Amino acid sequence: MEEFDLLVIGGGAAGMAASLAAARRGQRVLLAEREARLGGILNQCLHSGFGGGLTGPAYARQLIDRVNASAVCVRTGTDVLRIFPDRTALLSSRTGLERVEFQKCILASGCRERSVWSLPVAGSRPAGVFTAGTAQKLMNLGGYDIGDGVVIMGSGDVGQIMARQLAQAGKRVVAIIEQRDQLGGLPRNRRDCVEAYRIPVLLQCTVDEILGAGRIRGVMVRHLPTGRRWELPCGTLLTALGLIPDRALCRELLEDGALPEWLRLCGNCDYVHDMVDSVVREAAQTAF
Amino acid sequence: MEYTDVAVIGAGLLGCFAARALTALDIRVTVLEAREDVCTGISRANTAIVYTGCDTKPGTLKTELCVRANRDFGRLCRELDVRFSRCGSLMAAFGPRAEAVLRKKLDQGRENGVPGLELLGPGEARTMEPGLSRDVTLALYAPGTGTVDPWELCIAAYENARANGADFRFSQEVRRMARTESGFLLETTDNTYAARVVVNCAGLRADAVRELTERPTVRIFPTAADYLVLDDTVSGFVKHIIFHEPEEKGKGLTLVPTVDGALLAGPTERPRDTAPDWATAREGLEELQALCAQVVPGLPLEETIRSFASLRPNPYAVREEQGQWVREGRSISSFTVLEENGLISLIGVKTPGLTCAAALGEYVSDMAARVLGQPGRNPRFDPSRRGIVRAHDLSEADRAALIRRCPDYGQIVCRCRDVTLGEIKEAIRRGAVTLEGVKRRTGAGMGRCQGGRCMEPILELLAEAQGVPPWRVTGDGGAAMVRGELRHGRV
Question: Do A97 and B286 touch (CB under 8 A)?
Fold first, then answer.
């Protein structure tokens, strides 16, 4: 069994920064990334604004180059299936199933999006309903056209950024629907993504029902203060309902709700960050 | 025109099990399915329970088949390599009305020959199921109740029937049927079939199919139901199937710890016209949340990952009144199996239809054999089938060996449910043509992210297998998931 001082799970900004910091201190580090390349969520964020004015992939590139030049041992295309209390982990990749031994572990597996199907939203389950992040990946990495006449449910940053990208791609964004009395997300996104593209916003509203057989044809909108409901036709629904740290791997390791001292969370897996710079800064400090 | 001995209409649970039983005979069996895959109608959405037989009256066909099917269910699932959990059930009462129902079911169940039934006081019930509300007053424990994945069971019957020679034809909706001297002539979307016997397992359309040649006597008046699915993070919170017998009139709540570790809560009951078919109703979902909070107060409802709706095919006797067919009395409670000169119809088979699917398959196969003059046995019939290997369920050593043989099993596609590329490819090889088809065969897309991460690679694998671009691939045979290509193409 191979032995490491530190196992880092997740090769996004947080995992790369934590790996680099540990390697600088002379630790033997294994960085496991499930995708075929490092970069994590940055890879699908083609807009600029990372670390000043870079695009997501350009920002990732800087970190990837440093990782490649370091002593960090990188395994891409590798999923960590389980972490065991005896400080071993089970890794799966096309080359095989492997157990590695480690002294410390950093979980930097990012976050996942809340799916619309987890809410008591009534209606059918038609095609054309995506989380904002899935839509971003389909468009930016897959090169797919996800549809037109887009309603965006929820107004977090990912939703607003997708509104801008869709508008730029010549799509009609029907509305952003937000439960609160103001948009969420960063002020700069509100200005650059929503106001600049004159995206209609329905505040204090929610989606009550999804309509359409086959492809989505509309949503039933409800105005929360008055209870008024109306049908808003659309051809695509993106949902930006919030991000949830993805900690499935450490569920079995909790002792009275606490993580063992040899395991730490880092990046969006710890809490959801607004800025990648703060992720990188904190990750460097998280490294044991 | 194509000739066959028996044409089975519909490839849901009943159609697939009828076909499987028929292939044990030395005859030609053709299955005509309107949709693109098996298990797309009422079979696809239900409570996933294998009942014991204490809910129905003694001496009926339904009771006889249910008790027998429950006893034999372990063997059936071993034959078909299908996961089955005999987790037992607790029917919980919270007051005198429900207690009386439990006592009646205990007596009825014992008369029906259901083994192991026991009434438990509140203390015992809560020892067995600590999450149950403190307000429980009495519980009926049935150790024989179990749960099975209805998709897995249906697909297993399909694959086994196919391996034994049944010819499955998809996208073949039967539009016309006529009697001929030697049997029936069936016109589908784009073909004509001649059959000596027709086995009508057309689910919601079974009455309409029967009426292509017969006069209406029984019709289906469906009701709809809603369900919630909780993530496998709640696994262990509920250990038995819980039937909440409400104190007021109403449906109560059923909780099912499924074979893949999720928790199913449902069903409600509401008129069909409260929502489009297969669409959930807000009131129904909210009712379920309220019932969960009442029956198992600590259940983490925030772990809900999905909701869905089902249709219950309630059969009613009908009579003609001023040119209209109107329903008479209450819904027929027994299984309605009609044999009319070679046309065998299963109309409005509902609970415990999943439990009895294999038994009903054999029942109609025996009927067909009588019509066909008792043909010989199929000498090559093999009742066993192997499922798709689930890497997740293997030991570490077996999983490692599998990856060495086939590296695709080392690559995870659905992270929520730990489903590998090898499993997805195998599902497609075995007949999945839609995302739902892959999901029903492998579980990919059923976890907490609901396919957000694995949809794209699966879409591309389906497209590649079918030789079409990904924007031709559908979720469930309806509309395509993505619309086309962006001009900039792939980054």
Answer: no
